[in-house]
Amino acid sequence: xxxxxxxxxxxxxxxxxxxxxxxxxxxxxxxxxxxxxxxxxxxxxxxxxxxxxxxxxxxxxxxxxxxxxxxxxxxxxxxxxxxxxxxxxxxxxxxxxxxxxxxxxxxxxxxxxxxxxxxxxxxxxxxxxxxxxxxxxxxxxxxxxxxxxxxxxxxxxxxxxxxxxxxxxxxxxx
Length: 174
Hints:
One of its GO terms (biological process) is mRNA splicing, via spliceosome. The protein is an all-alpha fold.
């Protein structure tokens, strides 16, 4: 038969168990709070970084690797550019060259002179000279085909119907 001291001991044991569980829960809550505050601080740091920070970091790491490879090649007495090219496959090199050729040289509007130059270059690339007509004119006019300071040019040239049509089509396209 359990006496009053046994009941008191059982009650004390239950009380100790509850206190132990309470301390464990309290420690878990404290750890969770501490980890949460650390995560908040790290997230705040990440948000304060510039948006392209990851790319910059990767670029710097790549540059460090390149510098290390250059030092290794210099120590071995090899040319870094040659070693680098030996590591690249022919397919990758061709793909890189095609990609380089595809780049659009049009950098957008910077000023009117640059825009005018780009327009002029584009239009002159489109011109297809008629060499047969040129040869005929050269035979017909001789040296007079190439004007000098003594030449009177105004009103001497009559464009062909095809030339006028090409010009009209080009102007409409522009």
